[in-house]
Write a sequence for this structure.
């Protein structure tokens, strides 16, 4: 697992890792997978592509891992694509909804998350159909992540014969949003789609309020709504799309199991990110248990797809009831 354990996005990586590790620790105490214990090896990439490549090479060539698991981010996933295309090692449950991971992927990838296009559709529906906005601007992280989400947002706007009134960008792993704020404020945007991580987005919303600029906002799930909301200083109208249900408002079987295990692990405030990491570990384990040892890539990928399509308890959380080809997109409102 290559993820951010340092830097401005570290709280995302830390929570995903903790959630996964809690499930794997429970599993190992109960005999593991067909007698084999799961070892989750984690390395910090700081949400930087070059470090993600270095970590991935080490995992494959030195650690001889069975799979790459829970990698965090679109730019980091994009950077390791050449390695994955060559070796076809399973790339499981990446924390990204990028198109190249979801639509006709060239790698051996398995996703639980909805695509960013699904999230974009929900955000534009909220802004245009439900709140009658026509002057919508974008604040975009300037990298592959920003580009793929921007593409989905543009396509969703085009369905309503609209274009963004302004697209402003800022650098990844920075909070330098001053120029972007100036440009978006001058554009006359009444709503802004936010694409990035929790620190620069909260900086933007707080600074905008202090300048008497108070548009409606939407945010992508990657930002971590819990961490984003916690940093807002002023009343703001912000809707964040989510790809996992809120475990605090969920009575499904796996929500209940998650809370039991979080209590046992003395995690006082379980979050959606903990839940995502936990379910990633659970789905992997359920598939691996149905494969003989040593674990073979083909068996693992086949079993993952079978479990996800046939398990009613998983389907209830992630498959759209009206369109079986789409994942469910949830909402969080500040």
């Amino acid at each position: 697992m290559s993820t951010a354990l340092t830097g401005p996005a570290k709280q995302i990586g830390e929570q995903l890792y903790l959630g996964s590790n809690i499930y794997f620790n429970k599993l190992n105490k109960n005999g593991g997978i067909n007698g084999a214990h799961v070892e989750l090896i984690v390395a910090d990439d700081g949400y930087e592509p070059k470090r993600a490549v270095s970590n991935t090479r080490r995992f494959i060539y030195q650690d001889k891992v069975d799979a790459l698991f829970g990698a965090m981010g679109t730019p980091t996933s994009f950077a390791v694509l050449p390695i994955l295309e060559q070796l076809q090692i399973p790339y499981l449950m990446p924390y990204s909804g990028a198109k190249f991971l979801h639509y006709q992927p060239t790698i051996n990838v398995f996703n639980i998350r909805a695509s960013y296009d699904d999230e974009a559709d929900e955000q534009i529906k909220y802004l245009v159909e439900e709140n009658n906005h026509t002057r919508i601007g974008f604040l975009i992280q300037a990298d592959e992540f920003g580009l793929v989400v921007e593409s989905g947002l543009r396509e969703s706007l085009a369905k309503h014969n609209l274009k963004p009134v302004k697209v402003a960008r800022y650098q990844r792993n920075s909070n330098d949003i001053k120029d972007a704020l100036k440009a978006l404020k001058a554009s006359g945007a009444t709503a802004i789609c936010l694409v990035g991580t929790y620190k620069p987005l909260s900086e933007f919303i707080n600074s905008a309020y202090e300048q008497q600029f108070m548009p409606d906002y939407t945010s992508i799930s990657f930002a971590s709504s819990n961490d984003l909301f916690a940093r807002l200083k002023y009343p703001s109208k912000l809707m964040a799309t989510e790809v996992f249900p809120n475990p605090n408002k969920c009575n499904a079987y796996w929500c209940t199991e998650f809370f039991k295990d979080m209590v046992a692990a003395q995690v006082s405030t379980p979050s959606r990110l903990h839940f995502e990491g936990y379910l990633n570990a659970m789905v992997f384990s359920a598939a691996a248990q149905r494969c003989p040892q040593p674990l073979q890539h083909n068996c693992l990928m086949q079993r993952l797809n079978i479990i996800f399509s046939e398990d009613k308890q998983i389907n209830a959380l992630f498959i759209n009831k009206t369109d079986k080809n789409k994942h469910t997109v949830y909402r969080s409102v500040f």
